[in-house]
Recover the amino acids of this structure.
């Protein structure tokens, strides 16, 4: 009996030592969640003017640290804006060791898509093991048919073009694309109009300065119908000037829009749950 009691006391003391030691271990650094907003930094309202950025900051659990990545988020010239966003995000990732997640909306989604390629094929390949997942809302580089688990295919593909490198390819399960049916940024159709929407978007990604006549001069000669050229040119401009606050492209932060049949969660709530699951 005495021997048995001594063993118990010894085990209790050992447990106490382990617990005491664990209290002095350094606290684990939170997982970085890098987020890039959309064009003009308009990330949309939830119910009372609260931007999505702040929503994620306060709704992810304490195992994560939300880190907004600044960039110009300009429509004119978008080429420089996107390049700046890519550079800034890569610099953030390289400056901080450990696991990370990327989140992007609209133009920001295109930027995180570019960085996803850098992780798989480019300069960030050494950080591949640290990449836990990515979330894109209204991604202009969305791969056709790719969304996220249980989400119906919204049709089309990103407005960036018809194939790689304008669009993503071989997306993995860890990459989630939220694409609302009818969103011209993420669900461009393979039609003549869709092809020219992509052509005009590529014009935005050139050195386009915002002059509608400049856009028509750049691409108008190849469009067989002059009225179509005008409609598309104005439409693509208005798409980025105003559709972030109305229409399909604005639904990603809408608490009343539920992308999964029978699931009451909004897009950002689903994304939050996915990110929290990655820890």
């Amino acid at each position: 009996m005495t021997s048995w009691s001594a063993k118990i006391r010894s085990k209790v003391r050992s447990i106490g030592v382990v617990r005491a030691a664990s209290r002095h271990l350094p606290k684990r650094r939170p997982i970085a969640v890098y987020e890039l907003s959309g064009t003009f930094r308009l990330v949309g309202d939830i119910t009372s003017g609260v931007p999505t950025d702040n929503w994620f900051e306060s709704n992810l659990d304490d195992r994560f640290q939300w880190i907004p990545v600044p960039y110009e988020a300009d429509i004119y010239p978008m080429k420089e804006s996107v390049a700046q966003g890519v550079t800034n995000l890569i610099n953030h990732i390289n400056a901080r060791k450990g696991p990370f997640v990327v989140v992007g909306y609209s133009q920001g989604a295109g930027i995180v898509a570019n960085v996803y390629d850098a992780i798989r094929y480019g300069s960030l390949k050494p950080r591949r093991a640290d990449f836990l997942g990515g979330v894109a809302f209204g991604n202009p580089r969305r791969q056709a048919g790719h969304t996220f688990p249980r989400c119906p295919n919204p049709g089309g593909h990103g407005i960036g073009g018809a194939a790689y490198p304008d669009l993503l390819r071989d997306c993995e399960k860890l990459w989630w694309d939220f694409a609302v049916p009818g969103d011209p940024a993420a669900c461009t159709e393979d039609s003549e109009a869709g092809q020219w929407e992509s052509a005009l978007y590529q014009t935005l990604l050139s050195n386009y300065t915002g002059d509608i006549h400049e856009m028509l001069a750049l691409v108008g000669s190849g469009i067989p119908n002059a009225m179509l050229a005008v409609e598309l040119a104005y439409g693509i401009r208005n798409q980025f000037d105003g559709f972030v606050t109305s229409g399909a492209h604005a639904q990603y932060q809408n608490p009343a829009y539920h992308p999964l049949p029978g699931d009451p969660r909004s897009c950002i709530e689903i994304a939050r749950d996915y990110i929290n699951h990655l820890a």
